[in-house]
Amino acid sequence: MPIEKKQLSKKDVQKFDPSPLYLYTAKDALNRVTVLKEANKDAYLIAGRYSGNDKDNRLYTSLNEEESKEIEKLVRIGRKDATISFL
Q1: How far is the C-alpha of 28 from the C-alpha of 71, rounded, in Å?
Q2: Measured distance CA(55)–CA(53) in Å, rounded
Q3: pTM metric for this prediction
């Protein structure tokens, strides 16, 4: 089965802080997961693993359910009231 890649428009990237947060899962400690914080808000977007780009978008590989829960738990540490969404 092909790996699903999700797109994040380069225009949309501008609404996030320029320095992303990189986290790692226990299952795949070599490939980092990109977490973007919305500028001036306590809102985070868990994008997934960066896998490239095309003309207008950044491409991210989706996380499986287990990894999503693990990354969300890591983001919540110290940010209990944060809004968290997934790409």
Answers
A1: 12
A2: 7
A3: 0.85
| CA dist., res. 64 & res. 43, Å (int) | 21
pLDDT digits (tens, 9 = 90+) for 39-69: 888 899 999 999 988 889 999 999 989 999 9
Distance, CA of 2 to CA of 85 (rounded, Å): 24
Q: How many CB atoms lie within 10 A of CB 31?
A: 12
**In DSSP terms, which residues pair with 9 in a beta bridge?**
57
According to the model, what pLDDT value does residue 61 have?
A: 92
Kindly calculate the radius of gyration of the chain based on its CA atoms and give it in whole angstroms. 13
Q: Are 37 and 43 in contact (CB under 8 A)?
A: yes
| Cβ within 8 Å of residue 48, ≥6 positions away | 6, 33, 34, 60, 61, 62, 63, 86, 87
